[in-house]
Amino acid sequence: MANLDLKVVEEYIKELNNIDLNKVIYSHLPQFKSYLKILRVSYYMVNTNSSITSDVMEKIIKKAYIFNNIILVSHFCIIKAFPKSDITII
Fold first, then answer.
1. Cα(45)–Cα(58) distance, rounded to whole angstroms?
2. Which end of the chain is more exposed for a tag (fewer CB within 10 A), N or C?
3. Quick one: which H or E segment has residue 80?
4. What are phi and psi of 27, to 5 degrees?
5. Any idea what DSSP says for residue 64?
6. How crowded is the C-beta side of 30, counted as CA atoms within 13 Å?
7. What pLDDT is stored for residue 1 in this prediction?
8. pLDDT tens for each residue of 54-87
């Protein structure tokens, strides 16, 4: 059943015009749904005035051993804890 569902997803993706198929690594169905909430992360990167981005967070998470077999389905949402705070919730 899963292979049939996977074929349907693959065919749908191939029919879309606005997707670059070279950027699609492989298609798969999620095994379970979960989310990760990271608290008290500095809004600014170390020794810079640049704010942290979801791309930077993704690189950090992928380096962690605990997330070796995790596939992210969306980018991180970075939110300031308070409007004038330098602490974020990711």
1. 14
2. N
3. strand 79-80
4. -100, 145
5. S
6. 8
7. 47
8. 888 888 888 888 777 777 777 888 888 888 888 8
Specify whether the CB–CB gap between 20 and 62 falls below 8 A: no
Contacts of 24 (CB under 8 A, 6+ apart): 13
- In the prediction, which pLDDT does 8 show? 76
Mean of the pLDDT values across residues 39-62? Answer: 84
* Res. 12: pLDDT tops 60: yes
Domain residue ranges in the chain? 1-30, 32-90
Bridge partners (DSSP) of residue 79 are 89
Q: Cα–Cα distance between 13 and 32 in angstroms, integer?
A: 21
Biggest alpha carbon–alpha carbon distance for the chain? 52
C-alpha neighbours within 13 Å on the C-beta side of residue 26: 4
Strand partners, 89: 79
Q: 69, 75 in Cβ contact below 8 A?
A: no
Write down the pTM of the prediction. 0.52
